[in-house]
Each structure stands twice: as C-alpha cells, then as structure tokens.
TrEMBL record:
<comment type="similarity">
    <text>Belongs to the uracil-DNA glycosylase (UDG) superfamily. Type 4 (UDGa) family.</text>
</comment>
<feature type="domain" description="Uracil-DNA glycosylase-like">
    <location>
        <begin position="38"/>
        <end position="198"/>
    </location>
</feature>
<protein>
    <recommendedName>
        <fullName>Type-4 uracil-DNA glycosylase</fullName>
    </recommendedName>
</protein>
Length: 205
C-alpha cells in the first residue's frame, strides 16, 4: 500500500504519517489525545531535533513545538544562528499523554513502554529525513535514540556515534529551562542550552 511512494523521501514521510494515523494498535491512553503530532521540517535538514511528546498546545494545533517550550526553543535556535530550513523537529512519542484535572490537562511523562512503542516509527522518520546529526532534547528523546536510560549530564554536548544511523548530540529539554524557579540559574542554563545548539550547528557546518 505504501511501498509505491518510497522512492521520494518526502512522499515516504507522508506515507509514514498516514500509516501511523491508520494504526489500530496504539497504546490505549492515546485515545485521550486530540490527534497524533508528526514531525515537521524539510527532508535533508542537517539537524534533526527529537523532543519528548506533544504538549497541550501541540495536541490542539497538531504541530510540534508550538507551545511555551516550543517558543523558548525557537528563540534559542534563532540566537544560535540556526535557520528553519536547517531543522526538522519531531517527538519521541507522538501523542499527548496527560491526566485530566479540573481545568488543565496535566502532562504525564511517557514511560519505557510508550517510548519503545514509537521507537521503530521514529527510526524510520529519521532515516527518511536523513540528518547529519540528531539532537535529543531531554531524557525521553535520549532514551528513544539509545534504548537506554542515560543521564543527560554525563552525555550532554558530546557527539555520540551510532552504529546504524547519524550520531546523537544530547542536550536538555527547553521545558526544563521553563521549570527552573531561580531567575539566575534559568538565565545561566538558557545560555548553556544556546551554547549546545551552537556546537551542534558547528558539527554540521
Ligand atoms: N515538548 C516536546 O517535547 N515536544 C513538543 O512538541 C512540545 C513540547
């Protein structure tokens, strides 16, 4: 059904998205989400960013990184001198996982099973985009890419070779920056994040 379009990566990406939309094997919790949120950006983008999962605003918009974390991320990309045409952004988990509370939908971290479920799809998405470097934002993305629960602090800002694909460059998730309560450490951590993005950009220049 989808094989005919496999020659053109852009069409193959659209086919992968359609295949995921048609799945009837999704984890039960995904039924609570508004919609699946697929990756965005040009095929051949040298930098591919992997986030955790769509948040509340992404779930409604159907697009990755359009909420508060996304806005901070875009600001940091701009400061690092990274252009939109150079980046493809996606998530390890493609549905919003949350706990309904009175007024708000409370974000829930995906577990190892959720990450493992989406992993083969993420791998295929990355293969089709063909980036030079995969930047993982936060622990979930790093786990999705390595299959292991690695500490960000031990691997951050380093290029990790991968046997069967582009190397990985781990850094923190922008929502971690948003959660820091102290303004000084927030500013400092934000600068570190921008410095990481600059390093990643130099790797593909
Ligand atoms: N956080 C993520 O990890 N991904 C998004 O798309 C939005 C927020």
């Amino acid at each position: 059904l989808f094989a005919a379009s496999a020659a053109d990566p852009k069409e193959a990406l659209a086919a992968l998205r359609a295949e995921m939309l048609a799945l009837n094997s999704l984890p039960p919790w995904t039924a609570e989400a508004t919609q699946m949120v697929f990756g965005e950006g040009p095929v051949g983008a040298p930098l591919l960013f992997v986030g955790e999962q769509p948040g509340d605003e992404e779930d409604i918009a159907g697009r990755p990184f359009v909420g508060p974390a996304g806005r901070l991320f875009n600001k940091a990309l701009e400061e690092a001198g990274i252009g939109r045409t150079e980046t493809y952004v996606t998530n390890a988990v493609k549905h919003f996982k949350f706990k309904p509370t009175g007024r708000r939908r409370l974000h829930q971290s995906p577990d190892a099973g959720d990450i493992a479920y989406y992993r083969p799809f993420l791998k295929r998405e990355i293969d089709l985009v063909g980036p030079q470097l995969v930047v993982t934002l936060g622990a979930t993305a790093l786990r999705a890419m390595t299959g292991k629960p690695l500490a960000i602090n031990k691997t951050r800002g380093e290029v990790l070779p991968v046997a069967d694909g582009p190397p990985i460059f781990p850094t923190v998730h922008p929502s971690y920056l948003l959660r820091l309560p102290d303004p000084d450490s927030k500013a400092r951590e934000y600068e570190r994040f921008v410095a990481d993005l600059r390093r990643a950009h130099r790797e593909v220049a």
